[in-house]
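# nightly structure sweep
# worker-07 picked up a monomer target from the shared queue
# config: single-sequence mode, recycle default, output format = structure tokens
# input follows
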Amino acid sequence: MTCGVFLELLAREASPVEFEGPLVQARAQGASATVLAELEAAKLAALRVRSIMRRHARREAELAALFDTAGDLAGLRDLDAVLEAITRRARRLLNADIAYLTLNDDERGETYMRVTDGSVSAAFRRLRLPMGTGLVGLVAQTAMPYTSAHYLGDEQFRHRGFIDSAVAEEGIVAILGVPMRLGSRVIGVLTAANRSERPFDQEEVALLGSLAAHAAVAIDNARLLEETQTALEELSAANEVIKARSAAVEQAARAHDRMTAVVVRGGGVEDVAAVVTELLGGTLHVLDADGRHLATTGAESASLSDEELSGVMASAHSARAQGRTVRRGDLWIASVTTGDEMLGTLVLRTADEVSGADQRILERAALVTALLVLFQRSVTEAEGRVRGELLDDLLSDRRTDADTLIVRARRVNVDLTAPHVLMCARYESHDHRQRAAFWASSFAAVEHGLAAARGDEIVLLLPGERAGDAARRVAKELGASLGRPATVGAAGPVRGPDGIAAAHLEARRCADALLALGRRGDGAGASELGFVGLLIGDARDVPGFLGGTLGPVLDYDERRGTALVQTLDAYFGSGGSLSRTAERLHIHVNTVSQRLDRISRLLGDDWQSPERALELQLALRLHRLSR
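# output follows
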């Protein structure tokens, strides 16, 4: 009877408290001490049987979980799914509130959260623990399991504020962590934790260790599978790569042959650019070293915007440093260089992707363009030496037959019998001497003139009759090329070799006068420098000075029979007093005012400024003397 009661309790898996029921009932009925002793012994035996049965059931569940895990590994396809299953089983078998798995980052010296089950804190799921820090960091570093019944108060671990804060936010109290090993190397930690204070026994440590071993195998299998798949993909792609490279080499060879043929035929930069756009499509812009446009080929002729050009020049320096094509939006930029010198830039605009092989074609085109530029520079320099020597002879005091000089000039396409202007250009930096000489030689060749570098000045002889206009143009373009002001004095026009040396002296005086007047970066001839030009010019063109200074008033008096010149002379002679001017001319003050208003309309409102007034008074004096 006694055993039957306890067997029934065992059969329905009653709780340990219910096994006290038969004893309590027997005491209430006044059972003897012998009966009570038998009941106590039977109870203890039943509880031992119950404990054994529960251990067996637990072991059966553990074995089933390990068997399922082994099955997951055998059919491994998704590493994340396998690790999540292991973590979930660890939580269930240990009856834990939370289970999580971390992986080691050897480069950073940390272990980081990889999978969690039961976690509610985002900060906890993002944790990265330095090696040796906290319980998990200590397990990852030492490869030994650790447990704590109350982690936050456990002094055996090195605590960090951000770790304890995340643990507290998750509400974790008790923690068990075991290492995941591959041979002697620890790759991570598998952990179970509870939100209440509770010790973990050795059986739970062993079970979690078994699951950690399976997790390590799963990670290693996934790594091996990934490496195998990668190797297969690489092998599979190798043939495609070889085919693509073969096609790229063939295309590059064709491009090389075509660009070489262009050079052999004597083609220019535009011809090379045309080959590039024919092969690659899009639009190709060819720029010089300063970003100025040289040529455009392709479907569209739209030029680069100022913003694009600024970005292109910055990228061109990067392309030069890397020796490779640089991309900027839909622009592909290759630098045209030789040694340490930047000669220009190729800019391909296309909406299509440009492959590596096509980029090599663009880079090869940049190399061919550099060769063409250097060749053209050599030709220009050789021609420049010829032109410079001719101009030196024209400027020298050496007596040379004029006809011989004219014939020599015709050989370089210069007609000395036509009107020419002579210019003397001054610039400040000695570092720019070679660049200034090259610019002048190129400019003179294009303009069918002559150029020579003499010390810190450039001398130009160009076709034309308007010395001042030519001087201003040269000052602007030479200054832009050098990136600093250039001051240009001019003289002429001259015809034939005989007047060139004298014109050179006058042009130099004009340049000196411009610098003395503070007009650095400007250009002018003697006729545009007012009375200063009258003083420094060889021609002493008094009528020209009068016409430029007083001409409108003289013409008005001649057409209308008025006395504006007389009034102006009297006005200056009386110190600018209206009343004294009226007395000297025997006219009313209002008449003087009206005449001065007329003079203002003819000469401009600034005629009384000190500089204009001085020139006007000099012109009035010369006008009286000439009469």
